[in-house]
Amino acid sequence: MSVYPLEDRMKAVQLYLKYGRKSAPVVRELGYPGRKTLRRWVAAYEATGSVGRRPYRGRPPKYTSEQREAAVRHYVEHGQNMCGTIRALGYPCRALLSRWLDEAIEERRRVRTGTTRKARAELTPQQKQEAVLDLCSRDGRAQDVANKHGVTRAVLYKWKKQLLGSGYDMSPPKKPPAGSKDEKEQLEALKSQLELLEQQAEDLRKEIRRLQLERDVLEATAEILKKGEGADPTTLRNREKAVVIGALREKHRLKDLLQSLSLSKSSYFYQRAALAVPDKLADVRERVRRVFTQAERRYGYRRIHAALRRDGVVISEKVVRRLMREEGLEAVRPKRRKYVSYRGEISPAVSNLIKRDFRADAPNTKWLTDTTEFAIPAGKVYLSPIIDCFDGMVVSWSIGTSPNADLVNSMLDQAISTLGPGEHPTIHTDRGGHYRWPGWIERMEAAGLTRSMSKKACTADNAACEGFFGRIKNEMFYGRSWQGVSIPEFVEILDTYLRWYNERRIKMSLGAMSRSSPKLCVKIAPGNG
For 93, left (φ over 0), alpha (ψ -120 to 50), or beta? Predict the structure, then answer.
């Protein structure tokens, strides 16, 4: 049987249906049961019309009714000692014995289920107001106020909501006439408003302390560690975090500092102990700073290491590099510029003979060429092809790791070797330095080829070649990870794709047919240009 009487269970089910099948208002008003228990009662009520316990269809009970009666009788006759009963009989567990006692002893069940509910039902409106006033003006726990008036904490807050309402008017209320009935209610409302304002003030103080902590950490990171503006303190090394915390210990709590810097307490104390150990390299560190300053920030770790060895200081280059990193000593060095093939007016530019007309009536009459870059984690790879405007075929190509003259000259030599007697195509390029060096010009003149160049910074003049690069990268390069692929492996993959492009890939402008004419190619070994 349930510990709740049948009438209490029925009352809870009726309130649940009355409140639109919501369990929270029922629990607040009655103080019982749990939400799952209430739903179980409602399901039983809707299925059978009663909230009685459903018949047990599982295995038979472990203990017989005679054993239950013997346990209850022993408990009553031997001083109502549960532990003594269990030790004497050897059964059952404490929870099961407690349930047997609740079912057999009426007084015990009332104490657990109905006494407090009946007591609070007898309170007058005046007593309820006094209870709410004690709740608003309390110094301790709300449960203590509830125990004082013989009600549950949930019922106490329910009365407060009924008397004061769900919202609070922040404007000062009008003073009621002397002896008015609303005087106490307004006093209670004022006390509740005061509590709300005090809570808001406390929240603001906490937010101010948090913002001040973040500001102090950022300032300490910039001033003590010499980090740049906008540096994230959580990305510092543990030793640097320990230095910042040590500088702010007197101003903020250790717990807040550790949380702000994402550092565990054990790591902080370990780093603090390590910082207390004398620096064995203090003299070398000072020498490194002095050499670096005397050289006006021009020396890197190799020259500083050489200077120290000349002075008789035997130390590893790695140690010098680490000391420079810890001291923030960085040599002045030029910024790396993005690769651009244009090298100025090396030789006179020629006119644009193609004029964006990329159609050809016969093969080997119009050729296009350019250089593109493939950046993978292992390094950079460059491709230099020659495209025939007649059918879009790649006449020849070269692949290497450096966009130098050998890359384009070897490609041109292989393309010239494919020409037959009387074939002298026009080769269109951009104004890059590769196509204006003497080696390229000499090869063009020796083979009787005609040069054509785009305008400066006008990629549309070589749009067909740029479109070829776009197709390569969309079909082969983009959309896949090149992590772990070496440069020789990538060169092989690119070369295989270009062969497939020439021999098997269909082209809609050719009537959905593939190109089948054999062409030549050359691969330049990585590192040899």
Answer: beta
Residue (of 397, 394, 335) closest to 367 by Cα position: 394
Residue 424 three-state SS: coil
- Give me the helix-helix angle, 463-472 and 487-503, nearest 10°: 120
Residues β-bridged to residue 450? 426
| Cα–Cα distance, 472 to 488 (Å, whole number) | 18
- Compute the radius of gyration of the chain from its Cα atoms: 44
What are the tens digits of pLDDT across the range 460-508? 888 888 888 888 888 888 888 899 999 999 999 999 989 988 887 766 5
Query: DSSP letters of 22-39?
Result: -HHHHHHHH----HHHHH
Tell me phi and psi for residue 260, to 5 degrees: -70, -35
Q: How far is CA 60 from the centre of its chain?
A: 54
**CA dist., res. 292 & res. 298, Å (int):** 7
Two tokens at 415? 């393309």
Nearest CA among 396, 394, 393, 388 for reference residue 364: 388
Residue with the bigger pLDDT between 347 and 323: it is 323
Q: Give residue for tokens 């407060």.
A: 160
Query: Which residues does 526 contact at the CB level (< 8 Å), separation at least 6?
Result: 379, 381, 400, 401, 487, 488, 491
Q: DSSP for 47-80?
A: HHSS-SPPPP-SSPPSS-HHHHHHHHHHHHHTTS
Judge whether 498 and 385 are in contact, CB under 8 Å: yes
Which burial class, exposed, middle or buried, applies to 277 when counting CB atoms under 10 A from its CB (0-12, 13-18, 19+)?
Answer: exposed
The answer to whether the beta carbons of residues 391 and 367 sit under 8 Å apart is no
Mean pLDDT of the chain: 80
**DSSP, res 174:** P
Tokens 């593939």 sit on residue: 514
Task: Give the CA distances from residue 128 to residues 22, 113, 121, 432, in Å, rounded to whole numbers and listed in that order.
Answer: 26, 22, 10, 92
Neighbours of 320 (CB within 10 A): 27
**Number of neighbouring beta carbons within 10 Å of residue 436:** 22
3-class SS at 514?
strand
Residue 101: what residue type?
A: L
Of 442, 277, 214, 424, nearest in space to 347 by CA = 442
State pTM to two decimals.
0.38
Dist CA 262 CA 251 (whole Å): 18
| Phi (first) and psi of residue 371, to 5 degrees | -125, 135
Asked if residue 426 lies in contact with residue 353, where contact means CB atoms within 8 angstroms, the answer is: yes
Q: Phi and psi at residue 66, in whole multiples of 5°?
A: -65, -40
Instruction: Provide the pLDDT confidence category of residue 155 given band limits of 50, 70 and 90.
Output: confident
CA 507 to chain centre: 45
Enter the tokens of residue 41. 């009662």
DSSP element (H, E) containing 494: helix 487-503
At 454, list the tokens: 């785009």
What is the residue type of 136?
Answer: C
